[in-house]
Every structure is written in C-alpha cells, then in structure tokens.
Amino acid sequence: MSDVGTVTGKVVVNRVMSLDGFIAGPGDAMDWIFEYMTADTVPEVMAATGAMLIGRGTYEVGKRMADQDTSYDGGAQFVLTHNPPAEPDPDVTFLTCGLEQAVATARSAAGGKNLEILGADVAAQCLQRGLVDEILVYVLPLLLGDGVRFSPPGLGRIDLEPFSNTQLGAVTMLRFRVRK
C-alpha cells in the first residue's frame, strides 16, 4: 500500500462493495457502509485524492445522508449532470460538458493528486472510454442481496492487473491497474 500516497495524478474508481457485488442497497441505501468505514479508515487514500468526479445520482444520495457523519475530504467536488440543480451548492461545481472534458477539468483541479471517480454510471462511462488508471475496492463482509451493482450490464470486458490487497479489520481493500 506504499504507493497510495504518491502524487501521481491517476484517475481512480473508488468503490465500497458488499461481498455479493453491490455498491448500494435497495433504494440506493448506503448507510451499511458506515458500519465498517469512516473517513479515518484509510487516511492515505484521502490524502492522495485531490478532486472527485461524481455522478448526479451519487450526489443526491450523499445529500440525503448529510445528517450522518460521512465527511470525506477528497478535495474539489465536481458533479457531472445533464440538469444542474436550481439551487447552487457552494461546495460543488456542476459540469454539463462531455465526459472527457469533465475528467480533464476535475483532474486539473486535483493539482497533481488523484482524481477519484464515484457513481456507478459515471465510473462505467470512464471505464468504457479508457479514462481510468486504477480501481480501488473496499469489500465489506456482508451480502446485500439486491441494489446497485458494481458495474452495469453491458459494460463489456475490462482487463485488470491486481497489485495490492490489504486487510483493514473486517474490510478487505483491493487495488487493480486497468490494462490499456
């Protein structure tokens, strides 16, 4: 795990996942994650992240969870959406551009640190277009049985090279390079 903190400016899909492959439960529920993970679980990852590109659905789930202690300092937050909200959010920049431009904008804001990609749809689009360098997955010891899958149907084959696995208490952290 020594290279987690290196400043390399990679594009990293970051996921927390149940053992049966769900990144959110039914109704986009994500409260189960905080039974195992907190912002201080992996400070090296947070320190290596300079910006986050988030899908609109993930942003909305995060807003619904605002009353929980879900703070995570991943730098500047960008939300890729077709329809920005009527009320601006001072902590977020809403982008309505194409995916490649959104990644370039957020990566530039990361200041040489990693750009973290959150959201099932946005991550799948980035993977399909070859924009992702690494995938970081935290596997939690539970089965959800239903919800939002790690990847949507039709993503297609993407070859990965495992390079790190770490046990953090009950959480297993897996890291993969995307073969290009």
Walkthrough of the structure:
This protein has 180 residues and is of the alpha/beta class. Helices cover 19% and strands 32% of the residues. The protein has 4 helices and 10 strands, in the order ββαβαββαβαββββ. Strands 5-4-3-6-1-7-10-9 form an 8-stranded mixed beta sheet. A two-stranded antiparallel ribbon has the order 2-8.
Describe the global form: globular
Radius of gyration: 15 Å
Secondary-structure class:
alpha/beta
Strand arrangement, major sheet: 5-4-3-6-1-7-10-9
Number of strands: 10
The secondary-structure element order is: EEHEHEEHEHEEEE
Runs in which pLDDT lies below 50 for 5 or more consecutive residues are 1-7
Estimate the strand proportion.
Answer: 25-35%
Could you give the topology of this structure?
Elements: E1 11-18, E2 22-24, H1 43-48, E3 49-55, H2 56-64, E4 76-80, E5 92-95, H3 99-109, E6 114-118, H4 120-128, E7 134-140, E8 148-149, E9 160-168, E10 171-178
Parallel strand pairs: 1-6, 1-7, 3-4, 3-6, 4-5
Antiparallel strand pairs: 2-8, 7-10, 9-10
